[in-house]
Amino acid sequence: MPEPSGEVPGIWEDALLAARVLAVAGPELGGIHLRARAGPVRDAWLSYYRSLLPDDAPFKRVTPSLPEGALIGGLDVAATLEHGKPIVERGLFARADGGTVVIAMAERAGPSVVAIAGGVLDSGVIRIERNGISAVQPASVTVVALDEGIDTEEGVAPALTDRMALAIDLTPVSWREADRTEAPTGPLPSLEAIAAVTVSDDILGALCAVALQSGRFSMRPAIFLERVARIVAALDGASAVETKHAGAAVRLVLPTVMAAAEPEEQEEAPPDPPENEEQEEEQQEPEEGVLNMEALQDLLVAVEKADLPASLDINRQAPKTMAARNSDAGKAGAVLKNAKRGRPIGVSAKPPFPGARVNVLATLRSAALWQEIRRRERAKAGRDKPGRFDIHKSDFRFTRFKHETESTAILVVDASGSTAIDRLGEAKGAAELLLAECYVRRDNVSLIAFRGREAELLLPPTRSLVRAKRSLAAVPGGGGTPLASGMMNALELALSVRRKGQSPLIVLLTDGSANIALDGHAGRADAEQDARMVAAHYAALSVPTVVIDIARRPRDKTSALARAMTADYHALPHANAHAVSSVVSGYMQRG
Fold first, then answer.
1. Nearest-CA neighbor of 563 among 532, 586, 518, 520?
2. CB 583 within 8 A of CB 548
């Protein structure tokens, strides 16, 4: 095996070793989780791995946008029309039988892709149960999952990584190091030679102990460690697995364990001289090839105490990744049913909306299954025509779409009175926090402040953080409380947003007091009556609204106003930016 070299010792050499291991027994090992950004380093690894495969070995690529039918297979419409009987089409995994499937941007792979790939790795076959046909096709493949995740919130699904033996993080590797390192060459060992490699009980027990301490609650790591250790030994020309081969297997299968076990460089005081010759013999290092159980024990202790950087923790970040992926954190607005545009989510026999176009391909698939029966019926009726393709009304299929609308949070802030500065400060902080999240959720934020005689739109719907900060830089405060004017302006803006096809959410920060009526004259009774009238409009138009009571002591009039608006009420006597942002984000995530 090559000796580590370069700025990042061993990572690129281990990656090259992983490519050779994968080329020897890829389907048996499942595949490799390759974390690397798109670039020459990753391309160099893929080119080297492909050069190790036979020339006729299939090499297919899966993208996140590839439909499920293309992966599994189904009814071949063209062949069915030509032969007059259902013909099964091979999917991508079946066509890659005996080769490699590269999943690009695997951190964004949907549940269907993960489920299909996981089933193929478990059984080695692809099962087709769709379009009225049932078939089982061989699909013994090696999966290369390319992980381009930037931070710890992105990663490959654990259901997929648990079924792939190898994991390599090429992020720290520079192109200079990859270019100047000579890739190992030479023939690869046969499966018979690998099966002849022996593993001692001590090494096997140590590998199992390391697998148990890895934090992956599965039996697969222990099995993969033993298999990879045998392959590494066979590549090294050894007949038995030695300590160095076991260490290489741990680096390839459980890279976080080896990262945790590497001691930090520090100056140590010279050891005290031994008191006698027996102690001196005990302190001598074991010979190469002899298992050092004390060193393995230190390795296990290091695993338990390790506090790894997130970039190195490839395997343990996946559960968090899947938790974030299954949450509503990336949801943008409401999901429209029977939408006329958006993401296709299937087909239906009934039009999802008036004027929906027929899905020609799905219609042909539906009709192809009945051609033999219809041909017999035509023959019995004496009106058979060769080559005729019958399509009935029941065969028509229509595409269904799912469209997620954008959300717009309209913050309506009371900027009047002696506490205006505090309230505006919290509103500014909440708006900036919401804007920071809008990049992920594709939401918009708007700000309306009411003070003096009327309300004012300070920030139109936007997701620009720079524009928001400029608009919020100098906001005046003090004066009367035109609550009804602020509510009316927010309602008009919400209706405008709704007409654009977006989902509005009004967030009213107030203490419930009002002393300026809609026409601008002062009067507490008229002002409160106008506020109740506008609240009735909120209830009639069903505008989603959240009322946040920012009074130092929650007031009954504020909760009564929320009930009149059919809005949700939250009392935050000590309102702060994070509290307001968390409340608003929770509602926007629900859609």
1. 532
2. yes
Pairing of the two strands 59-62 and 100-103 = parallel
- Cβ partners under 8 Å of residue 562, min gap 6: 545, 547, 568, 569
Query: How many helices (H) and strands (E) would you count in the chain?
Result: 24, 18
One pLDDT digit (tens) per residue for the chain, 591 residues: 444 443 434 889 999 999 999 999 989 999 999 999 889 999 999 999 999 999 999 999 998 778 787 888 877 777 777 776 777 788 899 999 999 999 998 888 888 889 999 999 999 998 887 767 778 889 999 999 999 887 655 688 888 989 999 999 998 888 888 888 888 888 899 889 999 999 999 999 988 888 887 777 788 889 999 999 999 999 999 999 998 999 889 989 987 544 444 444 444 444 454 455 444 444 444 444 444 555 554 444 443 333 333 333 333 333 333 333 333 333 345 555 555 666 667 778 887 777 777 877 788 878 877 877 887 888 888 777 766 777 888 888 888 776 666 788 888 888 776 455 555 666 666 666 666 666 566 678 888 888 888 888 888 888 776 766 676 666 666 778 899 999 999 999 999 988 887 888 898 888 788 888 888 888 888 988 999 999 999 999 988 898 888 777 777 888 899 999 998 888 766 555 666 666 666 666 555
Residue partners of 303: CB distance under 8 A and separation at least 6: 210, 213, 214, 257, 260, 261
DSSP 8-state code for residue 121: H
Buried b vs exposed e over 343-363: b needs ≥16 C-beta within 10 Å? eeeebbeeeeeeebeebeebb
Q: How far apart are CA 303 and CA 306, in angstroms?
A: 5
- Report the alpha-carbon distance of residue 433 to residue 53 in Å, rounded: 51
Token couple for 75:
């009814």
How big is the chain, counted in residues?
591
Those residues whose C-beta lies under 8 Å from the C-beta of residue 50, and which sit 6 or more positions away, are 59, 100
**Per the confidence metrics, is the pTM higher than 0.70?**
no
**How far is 319 from 506, CA to CA, in rounded Å?**
35
Cα–Cα nearest to 257, from 214, 308, 212: 214
DSSP string of 39-108?
A: SHHHHHHHHHHHHHS-TT--EEEE-TTS-HHHHHEEE-HHHHHHHSS--EEE-HHHHTTTSEEEETTGGG
